[in-house]
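Z., the sequence and structure:
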Amino acid sequence: MEKSEIPFFTATELAGLIKSREVSSVEATQAYLDRIDAVDSQLNSYITVCRKEALDQARSAEDQIAAGNYRGPMHGIPVGVKDQFNTKGILTTGGSSILKDFVPDEDSTVVSKLKNAGAIVLGKLNMSEYAMGDAFHHPYGRPRNPWDLSRNPGTSSSGSGAATAAHLCATSLGEDTGGSIRGPAAFCGLAGIRPSYGRVSRYGVLGASWSMDIVGPISRTVSDCAMTLGAIAGYDPKDPHTWNVPVPDYLSGLHGGIQGLKVGVIAERVDTDAVDPEVKQGVQRAITVLGELGAEIQDVSIPLIVQSAVISSAVIMVDAQAPHARTMAEHLGEYDHNNRVRLLSGAIVPARVHQKAVRLRDMLRQQILAVLQQVDVLIMPTSSVPATLIPAKAGINSKEEVLEGYAGRRSFTAPFNLANLPAMSINCGFTSGNLPIGLQLAGKPFTEETLFRVAHSFEQATDWHNRRTPI
């Protein structure tokens, strides 16, 4: 086997090769480091590459496996983590120049869990500043989409999407407040899940919105995604928001098919002119495939869903402003222009507006939960459009542009972060311009296993996940 081919195995495949000792963890880690050296100058997906630390971890994993101390499927797997997660002794910038010298003295819980599972941390992945959506200025390099370098890989987990799609890590961690896992997964042709609120610890994570931030994996396949979530999920006494409930064996739950499963197609988000025609066509093809696999397809209606982006923004801007108040007072000019506008806007949102948004959020959650009493899974596009062009300038040009934004792609991910329900994106096709199309699935609280089963069934019946980026 050529070492240069190792990065093109899925994480699940690589796990089998490492367990059988056909590939060593050191060989895999070095192969990824070599590919990062060869490719990442075009993508800017990494802020920090932890070469020495990764190889030291890999040698330790190799020795443990040789001694018969195999820890499980993540043992020896090289991963990338968003630079939003604290890493002991390693620079953690949050994508901001304000934190250019911040080196934590302990790991975040999710990084600690990855290490305990035997994973190898290759480095810290690029992101939008402070995980607050579209940023224009990226102090550590503008992340680019490996399917088309002129396009956005998604925000705010930009590097997680770009690096995973370009085979610069076997799997990765992102964080999703308003769509920052699902958006990059859709734009980069990947599988990414925003788990249920409380499923994964947020201890040691630089937050944007305490009521919506969720850590989760961005991976090349559904099984890779399931394997990664299994390593980081679970109760954490350091995070009082985590639930002390059992974590299923997500990998073993992938099989069994979807015969008789009820799938609800959200009419307001599928049968609408707000969706790009090629995206709509790809999603409708995917719905047909699910029906052919035995799922019972039915249309459902969630009227308030069309206002979800406005509601989400009103809550997030206020949530985000509070922890940034002191930093804004001292470093306002160092923030990215777009984030400066968001944070200043959040500081002047009237209490009555915020309260209205909170109440509308609860109404939307109740509408979604009511529909989920009738079906097992909800289906809609992850984004109304494929990957967008990288903007030429910062800021907003007009009121019309703002309104278009609230009616567009942000209103496709926002419903499920508002409802704090598990939601994931999988690749369901490509446009005529070879840009990926994302299919979004959502379910009841703590039903990640069901989402994985539906997504895996679709993935096994199609070939979209096997396409390689041109880079």
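The chain has two domains: 3-253, 258-451. The radius of gyration is 21 Å.

Let me know what you think.
H.
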